[in-house]
Each structure stands twice: as structure tokens, then as C-alpha cells.
Amino acid sequence: MPRGRDLAGADPAPHPRRGRPALRHRPAARHRRQHQPRPLPRSRPQRTGSGALPAPPDHHLPARTLRGGPRGVHHPPLPARVRSQDHPPRPHPDRSSPHRSEPVTAVEPETAVEITVDGAAVEAHPGEMLIEACERSGTYIPRFCYHSRMSPVGMCRMCLVEVDTGRGFALQPSCMVPVSEGMKVSTESEVTKKAQDGVLEFLLINHPLDCPVCDKGGECPLQDQTMAYGPGETRFVEEKRHFAKPIAISETVYLDRERCILCDRCTRFADEVAGDALIHFMGRGNHTEVNTFPDEPFASYFSGNTVQICPVGALTAAPYRFKARPWDLTETLSTAWVDSLGARVAVQASRNRVLRVLGADADAVNWGWLTDKERFGFEALNSAERLAAPMLRDTADGGVSEWSEAGWGEALDRIAGAVGAAPPERVAVLGGARLNNEAQYMWAKLAKGVIGTDNVDAQLGDGLDPAVVLGLPRATIDDACRSGGTVVLIGPDPKEELGTLYLRLRHAVINDGAKLVEITPVATGLSHLAQHSLRPRPGTTAQLVSALVAAVAGDEFEAGSTGVDRSELEAAAQCLAGADDGVTAVLGRASLAEGAEVVEAAAIELSALPLVRFLPALRRGNVIGALETGLAPELLPGRVRLDGVEDGGPRVEAWPRLPAAAGLDAAGVLRAAARGDIDVLVLVGADPLN
Ligand code: SF4
Ligand code: FES
Questions:
Q1: Residue of 204, 255, 262 to test ligand 1 pocket, by largest number of atoms within 8 Å of CB
Q2: Which of 645, 660, 625, 181 is nearest to 436 (CA)?
Q3: Residue 154 beta carbon below 6 angstroms from any ligand 2 atom
Q4: Which of 92, 221, 373, 672 is positioned for an S-S bond with 311, CB 3.0–4.6 A?
Q5: How far is CA 18 from CA 10, 26, 110, 623, in A?
Q6: Ligand 1 mean position to 261 CA, how many Å?
Q7: How do residues 78-107 score in pLDDT, each as one tens digit?
Q8: Ligand 1: which residue has its CA nearest to atom 2?
Q9: Which residues of 468-501 are buried (b: 16+ CB within 10 A; e: fewer)?
Q10: Ligand nearest to the CA of 94
Q11: Residue ranges covered by each domain of the chain
Q12: Which ligand 2 atom sits closest to the C-alpha of 263?
């Protein structure tokens, strides 16, 4: 219980003399309700021929006396309730999952379950939740707490529909009810509509209705669903609940507890998806609130996802607060550039300025989740320190002048002059791993096919040999995270460096029975979930993998020098031997303290396992694209080696020239530059010293 709360005192003790009432059924709610149900109008009043609205019909809610106000003073009658045909349900008011890029899978006819939704026959997956089956068939059921990427909790009751499973229709939360053969569902009945009215009216009792100043306004599921499914008015005239607000629960996330509808999405995400249960419900009843633990911030690498999935404006992101309205934003689907996993993002901008990045729900990649680096890293784009125009300085006469702004024409002339005056082997191009494939190809063609230098490297010394990355059988994220799969992790801590993969692997291990074998020098964010964690001594990863492969094959092995216990190794080998559909290896460098050749040797040893595939875990956005397009020494586009091009081949004809000799990698280029052997160094969106 947080300090200072009303309920923080001793628990109430039972009354010493008052007995517990005998157990009996509670009277049905309708006998105890203050307001007797009355028919509600379902259509907007039509204007008469003169343009005037007709007189209000005689079905206003009863006027109420203000509590604490002068006796006998009545409110004027509330306006008639409007809804239904006037506000037909929108297909997807929930903007929390802005893009599902893949179509929902078709139902296999032989396993399909047939249900009836609003009189129409619908085929559903066995065990599928009713809310999903209805949505797939085109019937959207309103919801707040339900999220297709998290387990259902039935917190908000907004998805109540009438369901008949053979014992007559009764209201049931469709997010908690799995479909069953012959089930009948009514999402449009008067009882369903009345339940939705009631839920929304209750949710709005304590909601501040500050939509004009709320960042969620215009993309708020509560706002949208109140319009589409709500009663159109409130009978609540009492004072609303008040909390101090907003609270900065982390550097980037602000909490407004008054707006919270206690849907459990943020707390569920933190606990279930990210594994950082740093926010939780506290208090009871009317005082229930979402909050962090006392004096502990919401220090999660994934905190921004809670802002995106919050169905109201209770959680807002500091970089976007009060910056724009959704209708002011233009949106472009793109790919995150922080790591090489390629999370799908929606980049939203206004007046040529990026204001927000949201996760896009791509089944094959990130399921809509992003790390905070991916979500908030866009602020660097708007940094005042970024170059906005070409800058030039002179180094003539042994001195260096100040930087001065120049036009593009002058800058390009100077660059062309410098590059043209230098022999090709004294020109180098580093970087380009965060560009898209087309731009990478153009840089490779410019450097190798026009300038004629092979001193080209996109990886900056923190990656792996292109021959290993391109030559080993490739796995996708879905391969690595498939149900019941087996994953070998030789690489960095996914939680620190590969956030998307961390979330997917975590889900696969916890929910889908995937097995994880770690071969890392130190514990990672997934160690507590790993089936086996092997910790080789520095530099012995390849020996350990060699011993592991021998143990899987039932051969003799020796692993003494690796520091790993023989029994641990045998247990891990048994796990790999049981992987009938093959092993997926996540391959990267755990740290830069160890040379790339250690990991490369381990990969080659591991490739002896049957059906093994590799998911490269590299540090920059599009390293694979850079290697495929030839941004590496001794490599040309299409995985062609420089020394493998024959005279007159297609590559030679397409490009004006080719480098005369193999070039240097990033470390070699920097060493050569320090010796004075490089005259022109082109950095393509990269800082090799950082
Ligand atoms: S803060 Fe938002 S996501 Fe969290 S419980 Fe409240 S309404 Fe739901
Ligand atoms: S969406 Fe079903 S109870 Fe909330």
C-alpha cells in the first residue's frame, strides 16, 4: 500500500458480536437499481420541413436533485440520448494497433467451429476467443482491456454481448469466452446495447472528460466508443475523483490517474510482455490507481509501449505531449533503424518535422512493440546539433579555418574535386548500414564502380565477416521464435541490444514452449528463462561449441579449457539433440572486447548440426542490406566476390569500372588514415570513433 493512502492503516477486523449473515443469493441487480429501465431512442431526431428539430420526445431521464445543493432545485432535463444508427460502430476505433500488416489466417475447414453472429453463420478457429472470431467475420465488438497480443483479463466489460450456448441468451464478455460449436451471438440486441451503455456510463463517472486538452483526443478509444456505443449523456452529477497529476513515472512517460479506466493493459504489458513489473494497481475500490512502487521509477526499456496501448490519455509520452493532434499528422510506414531486426514503425510528422514513432503490428517482426530507443530515438532528428546545410572549412596553408555554411553546388564541387584528385586507393567510404537497400547500392556503385576504391565498410569493426553473415543458412525471427523450437544464443544480451527479439523470444519461451540454450560469457536478460546457460571462458566459445556438437553427435568431446562443467554441456547437448525440426542460432558478438573471429569460428562449428539456421544479430539497422549490396571490402552486389568477377561479366558491363585491388575494412581504413595514407574519407551517417 503506498504511503499516505487512506487504506494504509490496519486491516478492518470483523465485528466481535455481529454474526455473518447466512449465505443466500443476492437479489438481482434490477430490483435494487435506482433508475428503472426505460426504452431509449435509437435514432437521431429528424429535422422538420422548416429545418427545426421536433419537440423532444417524452423519454428524458428523470431530473436529479444536486447532492448538497438547495433542496428542490432540479437540473433542467437532459437532452435525448442518441446512438445506434447515428453513430454506427467504426471498424477499428482502437488506434493502439495501428497496422496489422498480415491478413488474419484463414480458418481450416476441417477444424472450423461454426457459430452464428447476429444471424449469420461464421467459421472460427477452435478455442478462439469470441471477440476475435466476430472481428474476423466483420463484426467489431467494442473493447478496452482486450489486446490481441496479451492474455485476456475481462476487466472492462465493454465487450459484453449476448451469447447462447444452449441454455438461452446471457450477457458474457466476448474477450473471455472461447467459441464453441453452435454458439449463437447477438452483438446488436437491445440487452447488449444497454449493457454497453451502462459500462460506458460507469467508465465516464470518474473520467475527467478533458478531451480538448488531452493528448489522446482524436485517437482515443474511449472517445470513439462513447460516440459509437455510449448513452450520449450522463446521469452522474456528483464530484469526480481527483488525483495530483500528471506524475512523471519515468523520464518519458507521464501518468494522469484521473483519466485511467483501470483496463490493466499497461500493467499487463509491463509484467507479461516486457517482464518489468514496475507499475501495478494500488489501492482499492474508488481509490484504485495505477502507479509505480514508492520511489521507484518505471525504468523499463519498453515503457513507451504502455503509452501506445493505453486506451485513454492516462499515459502520455513526454516527447509528444501537447505537440500535435492526430489529424495534423501524416504517417509513413517504415523500419526501425536502431538494430538489425527491422521492427516495423509508423513515423508520424507534422509540418516536415517528425513528432512521433509508433510500433506497427507486423506478425513476422515486432508485433507492434518497440524499445524506447526505437520509439523515442527520433528526437535526434530534430536536434539543433544536426547539420541542416553543407558546411565547409579550408585546410590550406597548414591551418584550419572555421566551418562556414555553403550551398550544395559549391560543396559538391569541392567533394568531386577532392575525390577526383586522389588516387582511388587513397579514398575510403565508411558507414551506410542504416540506409535502405537502394541507397546502399548507389553508394557501393559510386565507391567501387565510379571512384574505383574497395576501401568500403558499413560495419565499422563491430560486426561479423560478410562471408559468415551471407554464407550460413538464414533464419527469420519467426523461425527463432516458433512454437516448440530450440534456440542457441551466441551473442549480445537481447534485452540490452535487440529489444524486439528479446520480447519475441521471451514470449516464445514462456507461452509457446520454445527452449533457449545460452552460450554467453555473462548472464543476459533471458538467463532466468533459459533451459541451459553455458558460460565459456573468454575466447573459448568455439571450443565449447565444438564440444557441444560432438556431444550431440554422441562422439567423444573435451571441454575442460572452456570452464564449463561436463554435465552442463551434456544436458545442453541432449536438449539440442531433441530438436527434431532443427536449431536456430542467434549469432552476434557478445561484446567488442572479444574478436569477431571467436564468434565466426563458433558459427562454423555449429553449422555441423543438422538443419541449423542462423539469425544474424548485428548492431546496425540494415547491415544485411549493406552486405548484399556490396558495402564491404572485397564484395560486390549480389554476394559476388571482387576476385570472382570474370572479365566481360555482367557486373563489369553495368559499372564504369571496378577496384583494381582488394581494399581495407573499417579498422584498416582508420589505421591508414592515421598514417596519412588516406586522402579522402567519406563517412555515410556513421561516426567510427563512437
Ligand atoms: S493507465 Fe491506461 S493502460 Fe493503464 S490501466 Fe489505466 S487506462 Fe489502462
Ligand atoms: S474487452 Fe472484454 S472485458 Fe474488456
A1: 262
A2: 625
A3: yes
A4: 221
A5: 20, 20, 61, 73
A6: 6
A7: 333 333 333 333 334 343 444 444 444 566
A8: 310
A9: bbbebeebebebbbbeebbbbbbbbbbbebbbbb
A10: 2
A11: 85-205, 243-320, 326-382, 422-462+625-684, 482-615
A12: 4
Mutating to test ligand 2, I would choose from 135, 147, 172, 175 the residue with most ligand atoms within 8 A of its C-beta, which is 175
Distant-in-sequence, close-in-space partners of 428: CB < 8 Å, separation ≥ 6: 453, 455, 456, 663, 664, 669, 672, 673, 678, 680, 681, 682
Same fold, 243-320 and 422-462+625-684: no
Residues with CB under 6 A from ligand 1: 260-266, 290, 310-312, 314-315
Ligand 2 midpoint to CA 262 (Å): 11
Q: Which CATH architecture has domain 243-320?
A: 2-Layer Sandwich (3.30)
Q: Which of 466, 394, 460 shows the shortest CA–CA distance to 429?
A: 460
Contacts 24+ apart (CB under 8 A), 468-471: 468/587, 468/600, 468/603, 468/604, 469/616, 469/618, 469/623, 469/624, 469/627, 470/624, 470/627, 470/628, 470/639
Class of domain 422-462+625-684: alpha beta
Average pLDDT over residues 280-298: 91
Rounded CA-CA distance 300/528 in Å is 17
Ligand 1 atom index nearest CA of 144: 8
Q: Which ligand 2 atom lies nearest to the CA of residue 152?
A: 2
351, 332 Cβ separation under 8 angstroms: no
Assign 654 to helix, strand or coil: helix
Q: Is residue 551 in contact with ligand 2, taking CB distance under 6 Å? A: no
Lowest mean pLDDT among 46-60, 138-152, 356-370, 657-671: 46-60
Which residue is it, cell 499516505? Answer: 4
CB neighbours of 196 closer than 8 A, spacing ≥ 6?
142, 158, 160, 229, 230
The three cell numbers of residue 560 are 575442460
165 in Cβ contact with 218 (< 8 Å): no
Out of 2.20.110, 2.20.25, 3.30.450, 1.10.510, the CATH code matching 326-382 is 2.20.25
What is 482-615's CATH number, 3.40.50.970, 3.40.80.10, 3.40.228.10, 1.20.1740.10?
A: 3.40.228.10
In this predicted structure, the answer to whether residue 31 has a pLDDT above a threshold of 70 is: no
Mutate to test the pocket of ligand 1, among 261, 302, 307 (most ligand atoms within 8 A of CB): 261
> Is any atom of ligand 2 closer than 6 Å to the C-beta of 158?
yes
CA of 259 from ligand 1 middle (Å) equals 8
Mutate which of 156, 177, 192 for ligand 2? The one with the most ligand atoms within 8 Å of its CB, which is 156
CATH 3.10.20.740 for domain 85-205: yes
ipTM for this prediction? 0.99
